Amino acid sequence: MKKDVVVTSPTVITSPVLEMVVPEDAILVVKHLKQYFPITTGFMKTTQLKAVDDISLFIRKGETLGLVGESGCGKTTVGRSILNLYKPTAGQIFFEGKEIKDKASIQEFRKKAQMVFQDPYSSLDPRMTVADIIGEPLDVHNLYKDKAERKEKIQKLIELVGLSSEHATRYAHEFSGGQRQRIGIARALAVNPQFIVCDEPVSALDVSIQAQIVNTFEDLQKKLGLTYLFIAHDILVVKHISNRIAVMYLGKIVEVAPSDELYDHALHPYTLSLLSAVPIPDPDKMHTRKRIILQGDVPSPLNVPSGCPFRTRCPNATPKCAAEQPQLKEVRPGHFVSCLYVD
Amino acid sequence: MSKIVKIHDNGLFPTRDNVLYAKDLQPGHFFRKNGEVYEVFGKVDCEIGPEICKFSVSDTKTKVESFMSFAATEVVDFVHLLEVNNLQTTFVVGKEKVKAIDGVTFNLEKGKTIGIVGESGSGKSVTAYSIMQILASNGNIVGGSVKFQGQEMVGADEKFIRTIRGARISIIFQDPMTSLNPVYTIGNQLLEAVKLHTDLDRAEGLEKCIEMLRLVGVNSPEKRMKQYPFEFSGGMLQRVMIAMALICEPDILIADEPTTALDVTIQAQILELMRELQKRMGMAIIIITHDLGVVADMCDEIAVMYGGKLVEKGTAKEIFYKPKHEYTKGLLNSIPKQGTRERLKTIAGSPVDLLNLPKGCRFSPRCASCMKICLEEYPAEMRMSETHSASCWLNVKAAFEKEKEGDGQ
Predict the structure, then answer these.
(1) Which of A13, A125, B274, B325 makes an SS bond possible with B390, Cβ 3.0 to 4.6 Å?
(2) Contact by Cβ (8 Å): A202, A213
């Protein structure tokens, strides 16, 4: 990765917090993104909930970046903030080199970046037909000349995601979970985007259907050259689909690496325990492998521990971890870890 | 566990055989003699006299321990801890009757763990609810039997069921956030189970609750007893649910998707806890889940359900390494493998619609190796080994071809 060093603004992040060199083919660059939510904690008292606290990342064109972490660690918020569904508290987002900040750029950005949601049951309007659901983004962005073209586009999209054209006039409740997720994907593809945030798109589905949807995502990527930010908590699925994986803990990225590298040579103690906690469908391996069982729960994001956020559950924590905040550093090419004791 | 298995002429094993010879009794077995149910727990000793074996037993009703001796060949009526036989449950939906489970058969032994896996709608939770008899008002058990230590539970009066439900067989539910009452304290809800099923007074009961919370790893239980469910995290609430289920020291714990709502690191904690408690208290566990990783980790035996039928059952190793039903094979293939990045092999189509069941094998519309007979007739269960059985025509075909080959030579 050192090869693709390009020193042109805005693709170089220079800050004491993170020295990350962004390759030239990065389609999306996120710099120091912060997303705080005000929470009422008492009479006339509000506290900042730091859902995402200073993260930086980049995604190359045509690549899939996996984002894993436990519930409440802020992975969904990252996806939504990137798409400006929440207005970020601080930080910059660049898409194809252009910064996304004002209304015009957001509008333009949303034609190129779309989202597939987790729950296929609540993310489709029960009173709209499939054709209307898929056609809505076309209406919003004025992407057709006449009704015939709209209809044709919808038919193409329906076939693209593996449904049949007679489904167009039906309502969402007539479909199974996997088919609904396909409708959600067709809706995201309607504006012909380059980048899709997939927010836990397979978690609500049965195992046999999960595989179908994962294959659909891969096929579409090959066919249309899409770039994905794939958010999930199932590390096996994420490893399968991603080129690189970022691990989040309490609003921070603790480790980023190419997916095989992360799976085989994880370095951060949280990633290690996360990997050892994943149940592998193989009885012999399960009975022989060493497990790291973490003590305790994820701390509340309202009350993040000082220093390293993971220190309260870390088996190797020392007093130094409470005093000093670790920074992401590159320990091997492309492998970034944020831990004081990893070199 | 050893069972006497008669081999049929055609080389196939019979589907069920509950007859046991005295010499094959093992600690943990239950058996019936003269109408009484006994549990074997001492060492079975067949060396005492000519063909006489002697062992310690405990009366499961009075818990009185005694010795018993049998002629070593004497046939006793073998009783499993839990025997589910051809269980059928239907739900009335509008004018139609939906067969949520249709002929589920399995046995559970003391201290063992069985996993029931399947897709949503395959009937795994309904199986659990039917065993506990906590079905919704439109659901009815229409056939089959559930025997707990040899006592029939289907059709038994509610008073009898109540002595078993919650006390001898208890359940933990999928979502701990919604299965506890938000307006009562944790202590209050735990105490309810103690009051209902034991003779302990309030002070003793409270002590028992605190002890139980400590056992499941809840810190400062005295303080936690006075708190409400919203003050707990998901993992902690699931611990409370486990404490509540185990407070009467049940013989069977049914865990209905116990970790689906939890994160992986918390899931690992809860599974470890269940394993530890099982070792300590010796209960049998039924785990209901769709996560094949969880069953690989926890279970001795696995039952795979599809469309309300139990399609395959066997030991964990048999199911994972020698699956004999096309659905099980498909399920195992559709999980991302370690080390490779091949395209996932999928099962085509969508899950079966219970209102619109196919005529023959329920998996036939999605099966890649579907034959003509699969569309017409439901395959009978066939035994591969003492512990492994599956309902698939392909096995019948394979056995038939093997036999033909044998004849030719």
Answers:
(1) B325
(2) yes
